């Protein structure tokens, strides 16, 4: 694999890990169960992470879902962005991609 593509893949995984960490901290056991039930209804799923001020815009943009669940992580856009950057930096440092 092209080293640039490999770096990009590792950085995307690190960013996803940062987002997943916040999501898992924000979701209760019942929330995770509800998410699993929604995902079981179809062949694919879409998890959208957005700041509170974008809630209306996201709701109107996601059309015709077969199921839906909502949870609030309670973090700011800035906190999430900082966590994603830190995860990317850790990933780059651990693989020598810095």
Can you put this structure into words, describing what you see?
Helix content is 63%, strand content 0%. The radius of gyration is 16 Å and the shape is globular. The protein has one domain (3-95). The protein has helices at residues 3-26, 29-40, 55-61, 77-95.
Mean pLDDT: 75
- Please report which band the strand proportion falls in: under 5%, 5-15%, 15-25%, 25-35%, 35-45% or over 45%: under 5%
Structural class: mainly alpha
Number of helices: 4
Cα Rg: 16 Å
Order of helices and strands: HHHH
List the helices and strands and how they pair.
Layout: H1 3-26, H2 29-40, H3 55-61, H4 77-95
Helix pairs in contact: 1-4
Question: What can be said about this structure in brief?
Answer:
The chain has 98 residues and is mainly alpha-helical. It has helices spanning 3-26, 29-40, 55-61, 77-95.
Entry keywords:
98 residues; 0% strand; mainly alpha; globular
């Amino acid at each position: 694999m092209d080293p640039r593509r490999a770096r990009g893949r590792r950085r995307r995984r690190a960013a996803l890990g940062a987002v997943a960490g916040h999501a898992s901290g924000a979701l209760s056991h019942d929330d995770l169960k509800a998410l699993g039930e929604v995902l079981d209804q179809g062949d694919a799923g879409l998890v959208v992470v957005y700041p509170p001020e974008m809630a209306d815009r996201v709701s109107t943009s996601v059309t015709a879902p077969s199921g839906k669940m909502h949870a609030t992580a309670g973090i700011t856009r800035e906190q999430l962005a900082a966590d994603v950057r830190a995860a990317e930096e850790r990933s780059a440092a651990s693989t020598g991609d810095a």
